[in-house]
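mind reviewing both lines:
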Amino acid sequence: MSVLKINKNNFDEVKASDKPLLLDFYADWCGPCRMVSPLVDEIAEENPQYLVGKINVDEEPELAQAFGVISIPYLVVMKNGRIVNQSAGARPKAQILAMLEG
C-alpha cells in the first residue's frame, strides 16, 4: 500500500481506520526527514496491515500543532484513534517497525 498524503481534510477519515496508523510529520527542507522518508515508504509497501501517512508541517501547521510537534521528523503511531507511541528524530527502520508492533 502506498503512503497517504494527510491533510486536515482527510485526517478524521484516516484516523478512523481499523488498521494501526503511522504518521510521519516532516518538512521538505529537513535533512533527517529525508533520511526517514524512504524508510517510511518501505514500511508502507511491505506492510499492508498498517496505514501509513505523511504530514508536511509547513502545509499543515494545524495538524502539527494538534500533535504538539516541536521537532521533526516526528513519528506517531495511532491505534483506534488514540496515540500509542511517538518519537522525535530520525530512527532506523527496525525501530519504526517496533513502534508499530509495540
User: Anything to note?
Assistant: The first strand starts at residue 4 and ends at 5. The mean pLDDT is 96. DSSP finds four helices and five strands in the chain.
